[in-house]
């Protein structure tokens, strides 16, 4: 068996598992953040559920560690009160990113299992543990039952061969891999990275690479912990560790040999983490701001790299540099080593530990037309503000902040004129439409044909609405961040069916990206494939989602606005407008069971 198969087997009643098996998996650490936490509690209370084991249950407040937004502050306190009543430990706003706390505090160890409302919970692959981001219903079920159902994924192996160039960082490695595999070539796969250079990677470097598994569409990126990593983890957590390794005869669906010596410093262009190009090709692109931090690059090694470049220098005129350590322990260590002093003397804003730019509640957001170079893992439109975001390594970001434009070397500082903002207008809220309540195995309605791949959750339901807990309020925001469909909620009717492309629902673990369609009464979604977390959230919410082969569009002469009929149980598909029939993939058993149960809970 592969690493993920062994971990799932060890946490289940199975003696052997294989790809495609549906397995109930015991979860070692179960986490809700301030984002999603209030909805988890609401799900538990509304369904009269209790906590199965409070010693394995945690809150981590990392998306808005300042409580600067009233709704976040209210949700945090709501969770604190629930935690007091149920003896649940809270890693509060002074501690930093929850997934990093889980590693540093030993909430999960190599070979363990971890779930969180954080879509980057699969960062646990860096230590050889299984982590998974989940929606609010999923986490509520795990808190109540201690287990979650999983479909065992296929595993692939990536062998890094050759020697890593000296100027290539861990962030450059994962951006090069994204350039090769894109957002959906590894969709739904468990990835194991091996090779001499993989062995040489530090824990911080492994965290950087594993943190971007979600952006590659993968379930998780694993590194087998070697003796050096095990000693570091034991020293950090005070716990004895028994590593887990794949069997010598483990079966992989694919094995890729990648020549790492060909890798170069990279950036991801605004809009998509997989739209990658070399730093050289975009050199001299002017910037307004720079950000170093996030769960991808807020580690101690990242801060040391940035400090070595910034020491004795000043951030370019007109450029704002924001630096956010990932945990409070790292913040304190940076203070002890004099790094904070270096950052402040260079002119940087240093904030308390947390998620920062990836969440709307802390520093890192940019304004309209603002150009930012960031060490984050996502640069979806609107994710880090209203401007444009390039993703890069800490060294590239540090050099760029000094130069005033994108570069990965020492450059002469230039005086840049500020960009002129055109401003923006607020949109009026639309009327909220009620969700459909009829339970049927057949859907019939008007087709919304949206021929776009990799529609992410920020396009579906933007993070600025994440504090909403009432499903009745969610529909009005559906697709309002998807170009060309900003008025979707005004035009959609109850009973409509969405048909779209590959990797629908990529990105975040937010349940609202499903619930907004339930709110509008959308009766089904058809796509060529789905983001792994989105698929779970939709199934668990009893939202009918099915997959199809792209040839049905041509076969049935489907066009936007046609009337169609879909049978979830048989996969029968009929374009009622043209009268042409065909087949798509039907519900699989667990999906049907949850749908007929009106949802997971």
Describe this protein's structure.
It is globular and about 70 Å long. The chain contains 21 helices and 25 strands. The chain has 601 residues and is an alpha/beta fold. Strand 12 and strand 13 (276-278) form a beta hairpin. The chain has a seven-stranded mixed sheet with strand order 22-21-20-19-23-24-25. A five-stranded parallel sheet has the order 4-3-2-5-6, with helices on both faces. Strands 16-15-14-17-18 form a five-stranded parallel sheet, covered by helices on one side.
Number of helices: 21
- Low-confidence parts lasting 5 or more residues at pLDDT below 50? 414-437
Q: Let me know the largest β-sheet.
A: 7 strands, mixed
Shape: globular
First-last Cα distance: 32 Å
Going by CATH, the architecture of the largest domain would be: 2-Layer Sandwich
The spatial strand order of the largest sheet comes to 22-21-20-19-23-24-25
Whole-number mean pLDDT = 92
Beta-strand percent range:
15-25%
Stated plainly, the CATH topology of the largest domain is called Aconitase, domain 3
Percentage of residues assigned to helices = 25-40%
């Amino acid at each position: 068996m592969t690493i993920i198969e062994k971990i799932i087997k060890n946490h289940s009643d199975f003696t052997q598992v294989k790809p495609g098996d549906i397995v109930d998996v015991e979860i070692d650490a179960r986490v809700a953040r301030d984002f999603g936490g209030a909805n988890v509690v609401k799900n538990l209370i509304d369904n009269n559920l209790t906590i199965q084991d409070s010693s394995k249950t945690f809150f981590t407040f990392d998306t808005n560690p300042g409580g600067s937004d009233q709704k976040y502050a209210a949700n945090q306190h709501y969770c604190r009160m629930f935690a007091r009543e149920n003896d649940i430990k809270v890693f509060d706003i002074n501690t930093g990113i929850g997934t990093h706390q889980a590693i540093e505090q030993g909430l999960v160890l190599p070979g363990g299992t971890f779930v969180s409302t954080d879509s980057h919970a699969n960062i646990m692959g860096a230590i050889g543990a299984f982590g998974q981001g989940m929606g609010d219903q999923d986490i509520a079920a795990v808190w109540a039952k201690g287990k979650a159902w999983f479909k065992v994924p296929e595993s692939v192996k990536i062998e890094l061969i050759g020697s890593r160039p000296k100027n290539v960082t861990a962030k450059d490695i994962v951006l090069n891999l994204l350039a090769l595999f894109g957002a959906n070539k590894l969709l739904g796969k468990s990835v194991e990275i091996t090779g001499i250079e993989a062995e040489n990677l530090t824990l911080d470097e492994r965290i950087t690479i594993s943190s971007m598994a979600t952006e590659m569409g993968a379930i998780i990126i694993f590194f087998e912990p070697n003796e050096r990593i095990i000693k570091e983890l034991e020293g950090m957590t005070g716990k004895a560790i028994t590593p887990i390794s794949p069997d010598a005869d483990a079966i992989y669906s694919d094995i890729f040999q990648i020549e790492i010596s060909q890798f170069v410093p990279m950036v991801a262009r605004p809009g998509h983490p997989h739209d990658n190009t070399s730093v050289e090709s975009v050199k001299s692109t002017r910037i307004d701001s720079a950000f170093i931090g996030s769960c991808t690059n807020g580690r101690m090694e990242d801060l040391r790299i940035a400090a070595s470049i910034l020491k004795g220098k000043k951030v370019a005129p007109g450029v704002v540099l924001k630096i956010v350590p990932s945990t409070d322990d790292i913040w304190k260590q940076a203070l002890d080593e004099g790094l904070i002093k270096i950052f402040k003397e260079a002119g940087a804003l240093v904030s308390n530990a947390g998620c920062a730019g990836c969440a709307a509640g802390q520093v890192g957001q940019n304004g309209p037309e603002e150009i930012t170079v960031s060490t984050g893992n996502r640069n979806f439109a609107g994710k880090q503000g209203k401007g444009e975001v390039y993703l890069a390594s800490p060294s590239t970001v540090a050099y760029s902040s000094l130069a005033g434009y994108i570069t990965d070397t020492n450059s002469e500082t230039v005086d840049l004129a500020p960009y002129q903002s055109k401003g923006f207008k607020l949109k009026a809220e639309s009327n909220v439409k009620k969700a459909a309540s009829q339970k049927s195995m057949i859907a019939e309605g008007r087709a919304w044909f949206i021929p776009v791949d990799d529609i992410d959750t920020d396009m579906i339901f933007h993070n600025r609405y994440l504090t909403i807990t009432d499903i009745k309020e969610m529909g009005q925001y559906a697709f309002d961040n998807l170009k060309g469909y900003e008025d979707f909620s005004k035009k959609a009717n109850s009973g409509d069916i969405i048909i779209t492309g590959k990797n629908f629902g990529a990105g975040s673990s937010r349940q609202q990206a499903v619930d907004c369609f339930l709110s509008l009464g959308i009766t089904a979604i058809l796509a060529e494939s789905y983001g792994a977390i989105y698929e779970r959230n939709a199934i668990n919410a009893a939202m009918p989602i099915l997959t199809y082969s792209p040839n049905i569009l041509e076969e049935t002469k489907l066009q936007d606005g046609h009337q169609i009929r879909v049978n979830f149980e048989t996969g029968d598909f009929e374009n009622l407008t043209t009268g042409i029939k065909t087949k798509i993939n039907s519900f699989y058993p667990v999906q049907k069971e949850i749908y007929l149960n009106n949802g997971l809970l």
